[in-house]
Write a structure and sequence with these properties.
24% of the residues lie in helices and 33% in strands. The chain contains nine helices and 20 strands. The longest helix has 18 residues. The model has no long low-confidence stretch (mean pLDDT 95). The structure holds adenosine-5'-diphosphate (ADP). The site of adenosine-5'-diphosphate (ADP) has 11 residues, from α1.
């Protein structure tokens, strides 16, 4: 059992690429931490530095109370599951799973009992005599996880372990890894570019971009209170809608004025927004906070936006509407029965109590 912490950790690759820029992150004992961000943001590099597969350029990495910067990977008491599983093709599943223990000269009975225990947990007992090429993608993935489990490490590291699985298996394996975490009660650090995986699996999520850590919080906090426009747009699907405009004050009330669209702010936001009167800001609204006026009773005249619906995407239990306001395309997520006529004028209603505002220059949240 261990906590992991990164203090001012940087990685500069030869050639000067700053892949990780002064990251500070504490992962608690038994926590499931997800590092998420677009490709190239430095997630894998961060994980590989924790694993000891990549040198740390600056800063310290702690596992437990010990600085591990100079500790070789094999002595860090961690196990890593890779994206491509990295199984040995000439070895059986049993041999693959037991390889690390054999290297460490564990007694044979101990090796057998650990492999059987892991195979039991993962439901792969029947596969122990097969070789990797005789396994499906999902089965290989389990073996790779099994190989990590048998070591009983203090920390598990996962580098995009589901990305080679088809969509259905990915969802299934996602819940299995979640259950595994509850069962093993071990610290896990999980890298993914998939915001759905991050939201559904993480106790906490660390969002990265361009080598920087932008926000660390539990999934609901990240979703409801994104620290900046990037986090707001990256987490949530379909993504948050944005528009640029100005805060104005009319007869003591605050409005967001986009030029064509004018909406009144709710009273609760006036405290923080008053100082932005006259200034440009970025307005954000999630698809589920936009309604078709015909399907809501809470419309007030100062909060109705004219648009045309260009595309309807039925998702089964809900529908995505692509709405053109003349200057923006907004996506709304509405009930399955809401099918407005295509390319005809319609009225939208924004739930103004749910909207977000970001500073125009820094893109940092205002609320
Ligand atoms: P992610 O896992 O988020 O996709 P990576 O950590 O793999 O991102 O990469 C972060 C940045 O470092 C990228 O710009 C990538 O091109 C660069 N990078 C990764 N590995 C190396 C390397 N061995 N040498 C030089 N640059 C690298």
């Amino acid at each position: 059992m261990a906590q992991v912490s990164l203090k001012d950790v940087c990685k500069i690759y030869p050639g000067g690429v700053m892949a990780v820029n002064k990251i500070n992150l504490g992962i608690e004992n038994k926590e499931f931490m997800v590092l998420v961000g677009p490709s190239g943001c430095g997630k894998s590099t961060t994980l590989r530095m924790i694993a000891g597969l990549e040198e740390v350029s600056e800063g310290q990495i702690y596992i437990g109370n010990r600085v591990v910067n100079d500790v070789p990977a094999k002595d860090r008491d961690i196990a890593m599951v890779f994206q491509n599983y990295a199984l040995y093709p000439h070895m059986t599943v049993f041999e693959n799973m037991s390889f690390g223990l054999r290297l460490r000269r564990y007694p044979k009975p101990e090796i057998s009992s650990r492999v059987m225990e892991a195979a039991n947990i993962l439901g792969i007992k029947k596969l122990l005599d097969r070789r990797p090429k005789q396994l499906s993608g999902g089965e290989r993935q389990r073996v790779a996880v099994g190989r990590a489990i048998v070591r009983k490490p203090m920390v598990f590291l996962f580098d995009e372990p589901l990305s080679n699985l088809d969509a259905k298996l990915r969802v299934q394996t996602r819940t299995e890894i979640h259950k595994l975490h509850m069962r093993l009660q071990t610290t896990m650090i999980y890298v993914t570019h998939d915001q759905t995986e991050a939201m559904t699996m993480g106790d906490r999520i660390a969002v990265m971009k361009d080598g920087n850590l932008l926000q660390v919080a539990d999934p609901i906090t990240i979703y409801d209170y994104p620290a900046n426009k990037f986090v707001a747009s990256f987490i949530g699907s379909p993504a948050m809608n944005f528009m640029y405009g100005r805060i104005i004050k009319k007869e003591g009330k605050l409005y967001f004025d986009e030029g064509k669209i004018l909406v009144r702010l709710v009273e609760q936001m006036s405290g923080k927004m008053a100082q932005y009167a006259g200034k440009e800001v970025i307005f954000g609204i999630r698809p589920e906070d936009i309604y078709d006026k015909l399907f809501t009773t809470s419309a007030i005249p100062e909060n109705i936006i004219n648009a045309t619906c260009e595309v309807i995407e039925p998702m089964g239990s809900e529908v995505y509407l692509y709405l053109n306001t003349g200057r923006h395309i907004f996506v709304a997520r509405v009930g399955a029965h809401d099918r407005p006529p295509i390319n005809k004028d319609m009225d939208l209603v924004f739930d103004m109590s749910k909207v977000h505002f970001f500073e125009k220059d820094t893109e940092v949240t205002i609320l």
